[in-house]
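ARCHIVE CARD
SHELF: 3
SLOT: left
DATA:
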Amino acid sequence: MDDLMRVRQMETGTPPLTHEARSAARLRLRSAISEETRPHRSAALSRRLVLRVAVAATVAAVAGTAVVATRGGEDRDASRMTTLSAAQVLHRAADRSRSDSAGLPIPRDDQYLYTRTYITQKPLEGGKTKTWTDESWLSVDGSKPSKRQEHGKIRNDPPRSKHDWVWPPTAYADLKKLPTDPDELLDLFRHGSKSTPENDASAFFEACLLMKAPRVMPPGLQAAAFEALAKIPGVRLDHNQVDALGRHGIAISHPKASFTFVFDRETYDYLGLRTKGSGLKRVKGGLELDGWYFEMRSLDELGVVDRIGQRPQS
C-alpha cells in the first residue's frame, strides 16, 4: 500500500496528465504485468516491481521525461518509449484534422478550391525519380469549368451536368453530403456490406480514393475518414516512412491494399498518400504490367480562391 500512497501523493498539486503521458504510463504498467504473468519465466517480476513501474511512470509523466524501470530496478532514459497502435495514430490524426480544418474558409458555391500537390515517382528497380508539382482549381459546386493537373498534364474539365455522378466525389458540394459519423462513413465505404476480409480491404481502398484526387474536405469529413479507417480490422502501422517532401513520418496500411497513409510522427498531420503502381507494355496478345514504382503524393497547399489561376494569399 505504501507504493500506491506514493502514487496518490505525487499527483497532489500537479496539473492533470496529458493524453500522451497517461498513455505512456499505462503502457509501461501493462508491459510489466504482462512480464509478471508470462509462463516459464526464469525471473518473474514481483508485484512490488510492478507497482514501482506505476510509480516511475507517474513521475515520468509529471516531469515530462520518459523513464522506465528495468529488471534490475534501475531507471534509464527511454525517450519516445510509447508504442502506439494503428488505431491510436488514426484517432490522433483525426483530432489534428479537426483542429486544422477549423481555420479553413468555408467556400461559396461560386468559388474555386485550390490545391498544390507535390508528387514523386521512384522506380522499384532503380533509376531517376520523377517529380511533379500539380496545381488544381476545382469549381466548388461543379457548375463552372475546372482546371487540374495530373503528373504535369493539364486537364480542363467542363461544368458538371445534373446527371453526372462521380465516386468518390470531387466537388465540395457533393463532399458536404457525405456522413461525418465514422460508422456511417465506414458503412458507405463498404457499400452496405458486412465486415469480411475482402470488404474491409475494399473499404480501405475506398478511403484511399477519397484522399487521392485533388479535393478540399468539408470540416469533419477527413477526420471521420481516419476514424472509419481505425475501425477496419487488419490496418497496420509502419514507423519509418518518408513523404514526397522528405518529411519523416509513420504510415498506416492494409495487407491487401497498395495504398499507404503517411502522418507526421510528432503532430499526426496528414502528409500524403503512397502507392505502388506500374506502367504497361505491349506484348504478343495484349498488354502486361511493367515498370513498377512507388508514388508519393503530398498536399503542399490548399485554399479558396475566386477564379482559375488565382492562388491563396500567403
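SLOT: right
DATA:
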Amino acid sequence: MTLQNEHSSRHLRLRWHLSANALQLKALKLAPPNSLRSDQYRQLDYQRALLEAELRLQEEIDLLRKYDPDQPREPAGVPEGGQWISVGPSAVGLAAATVMGTRALVEHVLRKPDEPGSKPLKEGIDEFNRLLKQPDPTKTPIFLFRPKDWKPDNPGERTTTRPSAEVKLITKDQVKEDCPEYGTVQNLTNLAKNSAGKASNYSSPVLWGTAVHSKLNQLVKNNYAGQLFAEQSYVKYNEDVMDDKSIYHQDPSYSKRGSIRIDVLGRVHDNVVCVYDIKTGRSGLSFPRVIEIGESVSRHYPNNPKIIVTEVRPDQ
C-alpha cells in the first residue's frame, strides 16, 4: 500500500504543540513546588492528553488520504496471497500503515459504489458547510450517511470506491418529518442557553459553550432518558478550544466543571438515527467529526442505521 512520506500541516502543527507542551511540563518539574505550579502542571498534562488524542486521529486521517487502492497485491495461491506488494521506498509507508493505520483502512473504505445522489465524503462535508451559510432562516441542510458502507464484510476485500454521503437543503418543517424530535431538541437547547446565562458573563466563549452543553446534557438525561441520548463529543470540544487560544490561560480547574460538547441522538426507527449537532461555537462538520458521529451511533445502535445529521443552535 503506497503512502506518501510527508505529513499534513495539521499533523505537524499538533506535533509542534506537543513539543511545546513537553518543554513547559519539564520546566514546571524543575521549578520549586507550590500550589499554583501544581495546578499549572495538571492543566498542561490535561492539554497533552487532548493533543495526543487528536494527533492519533489526524494520523488515521492522513493515512486514509494517502491510501492507494490500486496498489497490487500478491496473487492468491501463494503463502503471501492478498498481501500488499511494496514498491520501492513505500515499504517504509507499509510498515507505518501496519502499526497505526490498519483500522482506518478497514473502517473507512466503502464496500460498494456510491448510491444515486451521493457525493464523496469530503465533497459532502464541504457542501453541508457551505449550505449552513445560506441566508433563509426557514431552511437548513441535513447530512446523510451510513457507516456500514465504510466497512467491508471481508477485511481483505479490495475496493476502489470511497466513503460517501448525501446532502440536502430542506425546510425546518421537513427536518421534523425526518427527525421528529428536532423541535424538542431546539427547545431544550434554548432552555440550556437561558439556564447558563449570558456569554458575556464568562471569561471565554469556550467556557460559555461548556456551560450550555452541560445544562443540556442534564436536561436530556433527566427528562428524555431512553428516548434521547446525550453523547459526548471530544472532537467538537477540541475544535472549539483550538479556535479560542485564550482557554489555555484560564483557571486550570475549568476542566473539572464538565468540559464537554455533546450531540443528541434520537432513534426514529431501526434504520434511521437522527443526530442533533448542538453548536455554540464553530459551524459545520469536519472529517474527524463525521467519523466520531458514526462511531458514537454504532455504540448505541449496532445495527448500523442510516444517520441524519442536522445542526441545532440556541435561538438568539
